[in-house]
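debug: dumping io for the single-chain case to check the tokenizer round-trip. Nothing else runs in this session.
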Amino acid sequence: MSDRGQHTPSPASPAPAEEAPEPAVPAAHDGSDPSSPIATGAEIPFELSATDDGDSAFSLTGHDEPEAPAAPQARTARTIVLASLLVVALAGAGALAWFGWQVNSQRQTTLSTPAKIGALTLDDSEQATSTADYLQSALNAEIQMDKAVGAVYSGGDEKSVLFFGGTTLLWSPDSDLDSAFGLVNDEQSTVSGLKEVDPGEFGGTMKCGVAKSQEDGDMTVCGWADHGSLALAMFPNRTESEAATLMREIRAAAQTRI
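debug: decoded output
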């Protein structure tokens, strides 16, 4: 039988080979630049970063050294210095306040010459009055007083006391008292051996010494001073102990604070 006219199927064409899938292209960082090497799949050269963050294995410099804290000894020294300055400042302020209080509490003072002080009686004879005026004038010439007083007292034992003083604002009572003792010094006698004694309830400073004289013998001299008054008294034929006790008695009767 003839094969003419018969259609012989041609062998099947081989199936085309599947195309290899294109490698995935990492998306751009912000997805906005498709032409960037990352978007196009181009190779990116490896770079060493010059940024020195101290943690990279390729860092160009070593780790930054942290700032060393202040030494404990230095901090302690500063604390001690500051504390010492504070203590000194407070002490100075306290001393200034105490001084101001003393001045204010003592400056308003009056002195008088009572007719009688214990066993002592005011001698109002002409000679005694003249002596008292001379003594208070001499004191006023040495230390300018707002008011000066003077008197001569006699005791039952016939021992006299010469008293003179005045009132004014005194910034340095101790120094002023030492200057006042110089009034008793003359060619015949000089006060020596000054000793501080109890000033009594009015405070301030009180001292006693001895004026030695070849003609009249030894005479005890006592005086007190505070920020408002100063006074001296001469005690012929009395010991320092007797004179100091009597001086406090005279002060308690003659001085008044407002």
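debug: round-trip ok. The longest helix spans residues 72-106.
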